[in-house]
Amino acid sequence: MTKLALFGGIKVRSKPFPPHPIISDDEKKAVLDVLDSGNLSTFVAAAGENFLGGKKIQEFEKDFSEYIGTKYAVAFNSATAALHSAVVAVGVRPGEEVIVPPYTFTSTATSALMNNSIPVFADVKSDTYCIDPEKIPNVTSKLSKAIIPVHLFGHPCDMDEIKEYANSNGLKIIEDCAQAPGAEYKGKKVGTLGDCGIFSFQETKNMMTGEGGMLVTDNEEIAKIARMVRNHGEVLLSSDKSRSYKSEILGWGYRMTEMEAALGIVQLKKLEKMNDIRIKLADHLTKFINSIEGLKHTRYDSVKHVYYVYAFSYNEKTIGISRKKFCEAMNAEGIPTYGGYVKPLYLNPLYLEKRAFAFKHYTGNVKYEKGICPTVEYLHDKGLIFFPVCRPPAKIEDMNDII
């Protein structure tokens, strides 16, 4: 330890961190059972009990809605598809605006563009990296229709403030819970706090089906429209004795397969245990991180953070070296360490050059340019670092290598 690996010393860690996701015999058996049944995607069946999906799809939806605490759950082949369907289902129309944070995966914003609606970016908080409720009024206009708060990295947003503002201004709330399955805000699970919530089951997530997503809601109409959007806009009438192929709205092929649903059923049963391990690892790391002046991890007392990744703030001036050099040194020691997160979305050519068709007939005044969200730009350029390995099957000993 007298010489850093960056300068030719011996690495703290020479072996890779344990691989993720964890695939056990339970997951393998679930998929093989579906393959043996021959029912891989029964959405194509005639009208009847399988019109809304096969047995595994419907079982997964039931289990997930019961776990989250909503009346309805609608499975999709991705969270992107679920987000797109949510924008349609809550009633956003082409040309209207959807308020989103710029520090999130691309589909939070492109889900609006897919609907020929316009994403408008509100800055984030410097401590939790979630959308800042105080910045939302700055970007609200007469065209605003919905807000998509993102529970980034597994830490819930300030939902009381967001809900109060949304209710006062007639805005719908679509919770993006892609990185936060099982997270809680003041004792309530995320996904239950808005008009609907969206979850991701992509293979890096806290629970996974390889690819996949879910929309949850207590609103029967939102659930109905979401099911139509995922299934080519088709609706099944009570008088139909066979599939009529009656398309009520524009829809897509956003259906989950039975194999993915089977994986989801198994993974959901393990989610609480896996999240508990993430929290234990993170708490161990936080005691060390927060003992160093210039490093700071924040978790509000009112939330349950489920740590999709472990992120913390970095002060270059206090630490004395650039974030880039810090990350280089950590990676040299065998610790995967990344500076920033995604580039602020509005700085991508899609927005800077307004390349989407949605902008052709837009009558509003949205601006995409450097400087519109200074907090997120600082975090991306200098102020945020994250570790992607604070998750099972890693153990405390692995966190000690980071320390």
Can I get a quick summary?
By secondary structure, the protein is an alpha/beta fold. It is built from 12 helices and 14 strands. Helix content is 33%, strand content 13%.
Could you characterize the architecture of this molecule?
This protein has 403 residues and is an alpha/beta fold. It contains 12 helices and 14 strands. The strands form 3 sheets. Strands 1-9-8-5-4-2-3 form a 7-stranded mixed β-sheet, sandwiched between helices. The mean pLDDT is 95.
Sequence-ordered SSE layout with sheet pairings:
Elements: H1 25-37, H2 55-68, E1 72-76, H3 79-89, E2 97-100, H4 107-113, E3 118-121, E4 144-147, H5 159-169, E5 172-176, E6 184-185, E7 188-189, E8 196-200, E9 213-217, H6 220-230, H7 258-289, E10 295-296, E11 303-304, E12 310-314, H8 316-319, H9 323-332, E13 338-339, H10 349-352, H11 374-383, E14 384-387, H12 396-402
Parallel strand pairs: 2-3, 2-4, 4-5, 5-8
Antiparallel strand pairs: 1-9, 6-7, 6-11, 8-9, 10-12, 12-14, 13-14
Helix pairs in contact: 1-7, 2-7, 3-4, 3-6, 7-12
